[in-house]
Amino acid sequence: MKKIKANLTFPPSKVTFPLMTLLVREYSLEVNILNADVRLNKTGKLVVELLGDEKNIDDALEFIEGQGIKCHIFNGTLSIQEEKCIHCGACTTVCPSHALQIEQPDFYLTFNKEKCLVCGLCIKACPLRILHLDHRESEE
Amino acid sequence: MPVKTIEEINERILEGKAVVVTAEEMIDIVEENGAKKAAKMVDVVTTGTFGAMCSSGAFINFGHSDPPIRMTRVWLNDVMAYGGIAAVDAYIGATELSESQGMQYGGAHVIEDFIAGKDIKLYAESYGTDCYPRKSIATTINKNNVNQAFMFNPRNCYQNYPAGTNSSDRTIYTYMGTLLPEFGNVTYCTSGQLSPLLNDPEYRTIGIGTRVFIGGTHGYVSFQGTQHDPGQVRMPNGTPASSAGTLALIGDLKKMSTDFIRAATYEKYGTTLFVGVGIPIPILDEDMAMKTAVSDKDIYTNIVDKSGKTSFSQAVSYQELRSGYVTINNKKVPTSPLSSTVKAREIADLLKTQIKKGEFLLTKSAEGLPTDKKRLNKLEVRGY
Ligand code: SF4
Ligand code: SF4
Fold first, then answer.
1. What integer pLDDT is reported at residue A117 of this predicted model?
2. pTM of this prediction?
3. Of A139, B161, B185, B352, which sits 20 to 30 A from A9 (CA to CA)?
């Protein structure tokens, strides 16, 4: 079994394409949609987690690319220099998966690694620049 | 009716008898006992804030070299400092960017490095005069080898500030942080019920000469801050409905700590300085007890569109902002703070401890802050 997190960018012409159904039916993948921004006749974005046989995942990725849908796989891990964090919260609302949160009553920053997509959006949002990707993202 | 004077409070502090609580603790005390009784029970309420305050910087006197130089252009770690004052004085501003590293490093970082005790590269030029013949100098300075270094911040402690959002279809990068398209998030930046000027909304006790906690040491309110705007619309509890009063603060940079002064870079905006400030408020009477008991549910600000695309504005309470979500156009929008509640509480607690131990006495201000209703001037574009 293999699990990947990926950002799929649909050209406007493919926004109505039933990709998820095909991934489930033809490639026996478990699909978890983490974030979606899809509107008719506009470039669409889906952040998904795919779980399945390694071969099925590889085949599915090939199929996705073949459809003209751009696939960007997130890998690596996000690290926080915790001792330097001032708990300002600037990183929290840019995080698409709510992995970074600052909540009542104590307002300390919490990071849920499980939820993190390693998308890197928080890195530049942190005014103290204490968030880093441990491995570089790779393009597939 | 006055209950006690600042002198009496200071006597109690020196006797180790003063009752000191934080602005958050005061909320419950007044709720349980009423303001009249609370005014008798409590002597001092401590406040705190730790936010990005762009209008910050420091004056440094480097000492004279042999032969001497009248520095006209000054750089500290490649960041330009203002040298248009006496020979070896300069002002390093938080938002000035490095000439070699751009937004990654700025005046704010020079200040943080200085406080941390690091060596700072100094390069200065001059046209040379008969009395100051040297035309350039390259050396290093640090907090042990300069004469004076004091932070002087023309505008700190904004009394309330609008929250930011973005109605446009692209992400924008602002001093209110990263704002996501189509009302994707809201950011806000005061410490609300802990904020100094929201606990003394009509400036009854905070004025010129008030001793404050700044950056880990003690400093003073030196004047009204720039853009001080007391005429802002007020709520029935006296707090302003949006940005209003400000303070110009001064303090010894050499005694500050990086626990309470931190340099920051807002993406595609530039550098700024997080400044930790705490101000003690003497509970002179029932009115001050009432004022310091203000809570987030009674403090309002407005959410404005930072994209400049619309004149969108929506009133919101800090209680709503701090819940994590607000509703805009029937949509649940996540909120994030930009100033640190953790640090603001740490400062209010620390100040409370220092006062209780007799290490920090209260001051009577030499002069009050302006309270006039005249609003801020606008800069007309006249064109040349
Ligand atoms: S990389 Fe940052 S923004 Fe992206 S999901 Fe992880 S925590 Fe959230
Ligand atoms: S933006 Fe940076 S400093 Fe602020 S809470 Fe997030 S990680 Fe901490």
1. 85
2. 0.91
3. B185
